[in-house]
Amino acid sequence: MITYNQASTIDHLEQILWLQQQNLPKNLTDKEKEREGFLTVEHSFEVLKAMNEECRHIIALENGKVIAYALCMHPKFAESIEVLKPMFQEINQIVKGKKNYLVMGQICVAKAYRGQGIFRKLYETMKEKLPEGFDTIITEVDAKNQRSVNAHKAIGFSEIKRYKADGKVWSLITLK
Predict the structure, then answer these.
(1) What is the pLDDT of residues 108-164, one digit of tens each?
(2) Is the pTM of this model over 0.85?
(3) What average pLDDT score do residues 71-82 get?
(4) Which of 89, 103, 114, 93 is nearest to 140 (CA)?
(5) DSSP state string for 104-153
């Protein structure tokens, strides 16, 4: 049985990083990236842990094993990950000083569990667990990652801006 919760142990964080490694472009073939999607950011344990201490990450567990996750990224981490700095700059232009949003820093479902509604349930759980005073989830998707673009659109995300950074086209999207 799959359960949804927030990461609460070092083991959870280590399992998130292991699953992340399986889905980074450097560990996938071009065909896999096109068919299955891919992740962009490789987190350090230290940053992942600090993010979790501020707002615990959402995880899906089966028999104690992390099979999926959605990372919670408080706006205070805007300068923590180089590749995400342009995203926060774009967000700040749009929200103009408001801090009532949480960034979904990365979402991943293990290959064997895709297509079972876990992606949707991770976001539902994230919405339920938003810190007090927060009412919006914002994230971005590499426009080339069609699987992710489609999955986000299917659960109600809408694009608020498209921009270029680091040679890529990004779709900045929100779920209210």
Answers:
(1) 999 999 999 999 999 999 999 988 889 899 999 999 888 899 999 999 999 999 999
(2) yes
(3) 92
(4) 103
(5) EEEEEE-GGGTTSSHHHHHHHHHHHTPPTT--EEEEEEETT-HHHHHHHH
Q: Which tokens belong to 93?
A: 């232009």
E-strand spans in 17-134?
Answer: 58-62, 65-73, 101-109
To the nearest 10 degrees (0 to 180), the angle between helices 45-54 and 10-22 is 120
CA distances from 63 to 34, 53, 60, 69, 166 (A): 30, 24, 10, 15, 39
Helix (H, G, I), strand (E, B) or coil at 44: coil
Judge whether residue 97 has pLDDT over 80: no
Residue type, 50: A
CA 71, CA 22: separation in Å to the nearest integer? 16
